Amino acid sequence: MLSREQLKTVRKIQIRTSHLVTDLFAGQYQSVFKGRGMEFAEVRLYQPGDEVRTIDWNVTARTGVPHVKRYAEERELTVMLLVDASASTFFGSVRQTKAALAAELGALLAFSAITNNDKVGLVIFSDRIEKAVPPRKGTRHVLRVIREVLSVRPQGHGTDIAAALEHLGRVTKRRAVVFVVSDFLDPRCRQALRLAARRHDVIAVVLDDPREATLPDVGLVELEEAETGARYVVDTGSARVRQAFAARAETARGERDRMLRACDVDAIGVTTDRPYAEALLRFFRMRERRQ
Is the residue at 231 inside a domain? Predict the structure, then answer.
């Protein structure tokens, strides 16, 4: 059961993301994410003007009369949202936490999908599967997806993207568009991402917070690693410490980006201190140019 404040949050997200879908993303989504192609519809008698290559030679040989195959475009897609609920996503130093940002992005993608009559499913994960919602259509279903992301109280603290993708492989038999919404603090996911990208259209939505890249000069600070609970006392007053932290963070981001490219996974980078609309538009435009 959601609290009154959470219900207000769901409503605000619905209003804000519906506006963005209507004004910005409706056309881009449909042009970028296409259906599974052409699906067989029926066999009918050959008519003058039909292409020779559409002739069904087996039926023609059996009946002695030329028949052709007809196909219909299969537009409907299944969109799966894999949302990271590990402890590190509940961090945010500016406007919102990474978890709140993930909920809003998930809502935007889900509303874009149902606007185009696609199904939407959800897998919430930490170091285990926290919640799974089968793909369905409709506004009520999308609102349920948003509520699940906002109300999740994860049992796990760590991150296991590979387990989430393996779960997806078991429950989703046909090709899907898969958005993995995470901060990707899981170096073990490379092989699972590579395998998933061969079967599905996998897009990484990478969550970042500016405080994870730089330390402020505020003297001695005790920091706790969210997913392991390890604690450290850090002298942020030291320029050398701040520089080392920034260099290590930049190296980690570079390794993450190279890993995603090596897995043939497109990435959308979003941060808690900036509007995400422009990042999504850049992604859609890149996809359109590629196609």
Answer: no
Asked whether 169 and 200 are in contact (CB, 8 A), the reply is no
What is the phi/psi pair of residue 234, to 5°?
-120, 135
Q: For residue 119, give the nearest of 134, 108, 107 by alpha carbon.
A: 134
pLDDT tens-digit readout, 93-129:
988 999 999 999 999 999 999 888 899 999 999 999 9
DSSP state of 56: -
| Range(s) of the domain holding residue 43 | 38-73
Closest CA to 261 of 197, 212, 183, 180: 197
| Rounded distance between C-alpha atoms, residue 99 and residue 91, angstroms | 8
Q: Tell me the Cα Rg of the chain.
A: 23
For residue 178, the tally of other CB atoms under 10 A from its CB is: 26
To which residue do tokens 């939505």 refer? Answer: 205
Torsion angle in degrees (nearest 10) through CA of 58, 62, 63, 68: 0
Average pLDDT for 163-169: 96
Q: How many separate domains does the chain show?
A: 2
Instruction: Tokens for 132, please give them.
Output: 């799974």
